[in-house]
Amino acid sequence: MWGDILLQLTLTLVSVFMFLLMYNVPQKALAKLRLRSRANTKARHHFVQGAQLLARARSATNRHEIATLARAAADEADKSTAIDPKDAAPHILKALALEIEGYKTSALDSIDVALSPLAVKSLGDGERGDALFKRAELKLGLNRRGRVDSVVADLTESLRLKSDNGKAFCLLGECYEMKKMTAEARRAYEEALRVEPNSVVAREALSRLES
């Protein structure tokens, strides 16, 4: 009985394979895989180029050079996302470049795309935590104090994913101070000191709250 079933299964698999072979499906699948691999390689190349330009922009001292390098980094990020829009890394790269240029609203838009369902799956937990922290920074930098609850939500999730970010704890403490939640702010600053014992920001904040 089992021998007959195995024989029938084998014949079925052979028939399916012959059908696929007849219609060139294996070759088509392989060709698609090769094209996808080439596309990913090109996208990664543009991302690496952009990351290098961003690093140069951050270390430059001349304003014109900084702006030029940041713009070039953003352009490379665009080339990468045009090839692979589901990769969050180039969107984050563009956000960082736009922030250097002073375009914080556009930078926030890019971070939003990186954290959207389209791209967020490409990020690991730590990377997603960093992206959420950067989004929180940008929101506060745009003086969107009316959206403090949104910032707190981002920081809370960021710290759940990556609990060793002292700056995120400090920013969370700042948000709690805005909300007049002194006890929560104190706990956030204490956590910042636990992670970064030399944090001047956290120490000064705790001194201010205790005075």
Describe the structure in your own words.
With 211 residues, the chain is mostly helical. It is built from ten helices and no strands. α2 packs parallel to α4, α6 packs antiparallel against α7 and α7 runs antiparallel to α8. The N and C termini lie far apart (85 Å). About 9% of the residues have low confidence.
Question: Brief overview, please?
Answer:
With 211 residues, this protein is mostly helical.
In what range is the share of β-strand residues? under 5%
Which parts are unreliable, with pLDDT below 50 for 5 consecutive residues or more? 16-26, 28-35
What is the average of the pLDDT values?
85
What's the count of strands? Answer: 0
Q: Number of helical runs?
A: 10
- The secondary structure category is mainly alpha
Radius of gyration: 25 Å
Sheet bearing the most strands, described?
A: none
What is the CA-CA span between the terminal residues?
85 Å
Helix content: over 70%
- Overall 3D form: globular
Instruction: Give the ordered list of helices and strands.
Output: HHHHHHHHHH
Which key phrases capture this entry?
single chain, 211 residues, mainly alpha, 10 helices, globular
What's the SSE blueprint?
Elements: H1 2-22, H2 25-59, H3 63-83, H4 88-101, H5 104-114, H6 125-141, H7 148-161, H8 166-178, H9 182-195, H10 200-210
